[in-house]
Amino acid sequence: MSPRPFVSLLLIFFLRAASADGRSTNIIHETCKKCAREDPNVSYKFCVASLESNPYSHCADLRGLGLISVKLLRHNVTRTRSYTEKLLKSEEMDPSVRACLEDCLELYSDAVPTLAEAIRAYKDERYEDTNINLSSVMNAPTTCEDGFSEKGAGSPLAKRNKDSFQLSAVALSIVTMLSRSSH
Ligand SMILES: *[C@@H]1O[C@H](CO)[C@@H](O)[C@H](O)[C@H]1NC(C)=O
Ligand SMILES: *[C@@H]1O[C@H](CO)[C@@H](O)[C@H](O)[C@H]1NC(C)=O
Ligand SMILES: *[C@@H]1O[C@H](CO)[C@@H](O)[C@H](O)[C@H]1NC(C)=O
To answer: What are the Pectinesterase inhibitor domain coordinates in residue numbering (predicted)?
Structure first.
């Protein structure tokens, strides 16, 4: 028996895998390029790195990428909430830092149910509601970080606040694109 049919089958398999991969890389890059161009709060590099971190991005369309970005944000917010809680339990801390962290805990705690509403609205294609809920989530890292700056205290949540802000911006930007194309 000739090995040729097998070899061509393998070749077809690899070509298809390669083109599927090329397509998904493209939609991530194209989407992030558009987001960064339209929204100064979005960093192209951050956008690509976060979306690519999710294995499902590789076969997603714009709507799928939007949901992935909101879920990445939920993961971030949930983890920052529990991290803040843990920090507050460690006893030694400047009282002004403690007060700021308590505010942040409240902000991040409120953001969790708001994100659940954002996801529900997104799944129903109610993009305006999604936008309202995401904008309110985006305020959490900003307000949290402002608290530390006002007291002239170093923020132990700086990196996390920046990430949550960036992810909110990516999600908001994708939702804006979708709401435009659905009209
Ligand atoms: C960018 O972030 C700032 C600060 O939070 C906000 O006021 C502004 O509305 C954001 N821009 C967009 C296009 O979302
Ligand atoms: C938040 O999301 C960013 C981008 O996806 C990621 O790099 C970072 O590790 C996440 N942080 C947490 C605490 O989950
Ligand atoms: C989410 O948005 C909807 C629609 O604007 C609003 O009625 C609701 O109060 C928001 N939810 C939260 C938790 O902010």
So the answer is: 23-174
